[in-house]
Amino acid sequence: MNGESVAWEAIATCRIRQTFTLMRPPRVVLVIVAIAVVVPALVPATAAAPPPEGVCGVCGSAFEQSAEEVGVDATVVESDLAVHVSADGDSRWTAHVVLSRPAADRFAANRTLLRRAVEQTYASYRTAVDDPRNLSVGLDDRTVTVSFTVADAAQRYPGDVLLFDAFARSPPDGEPYVDADELSVHGPTGTAVTHAPAGGTVDGNRVVWTASEDGRTYSPRLGREASVAFGPNDGLPSRAATAVAVRGHSLDVIGPELRAYALAPAALLGIVAVGLLLTGGRLPVGADLGRTAARWLAVGVGLYVALAAVAFLLVGDGLGYVLGVVGIGLAPQAFLTATVAVVTDYRDVASGGSAASVTSLAVLAVLGWTLALVLGAPASALLVLTVGPLVFLPFGVLAAAGHRARLLFPVVAALGPVVAALPLVPRVGVVFVTPAMLTLLLAGSAVLGVPLFAIGRRLSSRATSAAGSADGAGD
Known about the structure:
By secondary structure, the protein is an alpha+beta fold. Helix content is 55%, strand content 14%.
């Protein structure tokens, strides 16, 4: 009886296991589900770029369209806009618009229509100013004069720099363009223009742009960073303070999007740097380190290419495109890493130098890298994306030598993703590189940096050993 019970229990257990086996989804299904969840975060987003916005509004076609909406066929013959910025940051905007004779006569007969057309122009969100305050509208013969104020249009920065940023735009607002025959921005009395968008003519505390004659629509454009700075004078100290103010203002504007791109990869590289500082001594530093690293890189590249091909053929263009872009971005870094690894194996680059000199060169390399990233931004993003892992090499030297500068490794490593993200923000139109794609690319940079860190440790050890041998020979 006991034997029969055991047999029945075994049969029941087997059937239960078979049931759960049938219920458990195969691994390929799990992979497909995981890809379906991850790919949307990686695939580039497509969106139409917002239309440009006129800085004046009533000076061009926006006013003509608003006039048509109130039943007046108006043509702007000539126009200008003057913006006067006060020392407290407020501004007064005055536009003069010369209309065609029939439109001027129609508005003269009904001033209410004129004011309605002006208000409609600014309410249509096609201009840099959407909500003008203290609006006044006048008509003298064919000339319409529109005046209003914009509060807090300029901010005070260290160095007594006044930065006018009412023209600066960020998505979803369109890029500003000059829609008047002449645009002028005037600073407070006793100041000088120390920074302005390209294309303007500076005269003391005033900068002037004139309408483009190249026939292009929405031209000239001022660019999204369309800020005008006024300093106490035009000297070198004022220009240096202006450069700091302009850079700080730009970072404030793009701050949220910059964090979306840079926070994850910066944290990742910082963590990797801390991990290498704490456990880097366990990395192999044998004589064949370079060749071993090169072989592993070759295997990794082959597997990555195969993965990209499978993703493109079986999963779809989305994941294939993502892996292709990331692979192209990692290609120069992988080639650089392999080259450094092989060269340091076959040539003793630390020979002929003392341990102190090798360490000093590593400190200078870190300093030069940091200054290049900070002073060259955003163009220096190209350095991060092409030779980014190379900064791991001098920090390997510093870590092996126990130099205090090694403690800067997490900060310098995290700086790279911030600089790399600068050209990607603000996002306008078609977004080819998403935050997840940049994180994946820089994660690859961190992986490539690990063998370079180990090579740096070996270089320091070789220099130290050579110095010890020289001292022994001298004794």
